[in-house]
């Protein structure tokens, strides 16, 4: 039962914080430095999610090897993105490389 109250409490705190930003957002002007810092949040969060999944897909430490399909696909994605600047093509090519690499190399 304590877990239920813990989850309810966390949900309430999360809701209050998010609602406060929407309700008070226009009344509380952020300084320019805070607005600049907040603009980097999406990139930082995506990097924090993607890099560990790419470098250590099984959670047992870094797997920097050609047998890691996530790492190979990520490198291909970086190259394709730098060359074409087309997100959909980057996603399609890197997914194709990931599945082909997983099928060909890991079998």
From TrEMBL:
This one is known as Branched-chain amino acid transporter
Q: Which organism is it from?
A: Caballeronia novacaledonica
For this UniProt record, the keywords arranged alphabetically read as follows:
Membrane, Transmembrane, Transmembrane helix
- By its UniProt entry, which InterPro entries does this protein fall under? Brnchd-chn_aa_trnsp_AzlD
Which segments cross the bilayer? 6-25, 37-55, 67-83, 88-106
């Amino acid at each position: 039962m304590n877990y239920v109250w813990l989850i309810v409490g966390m949900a309430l705190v999360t809701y209050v914080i998010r609602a406060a930003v929407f309700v008070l957002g226009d009344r509380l002007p952020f300084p320019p430095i805070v607005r600049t810092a907040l603009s980097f949040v999406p990139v930082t969060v995506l990097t924090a999610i993607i890099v560990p999944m790419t470098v250590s897909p099984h959670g047992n430490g870094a797997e920097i090897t050609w047998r890691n399909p996530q790492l190979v696909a990520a490198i291909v994605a970086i190259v394709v993105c730098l060359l074409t600047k087309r997100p959909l093509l980057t996603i399609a090519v890197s997914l194709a490389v990931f599945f082909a690499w997983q099928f060909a190399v890991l079998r």
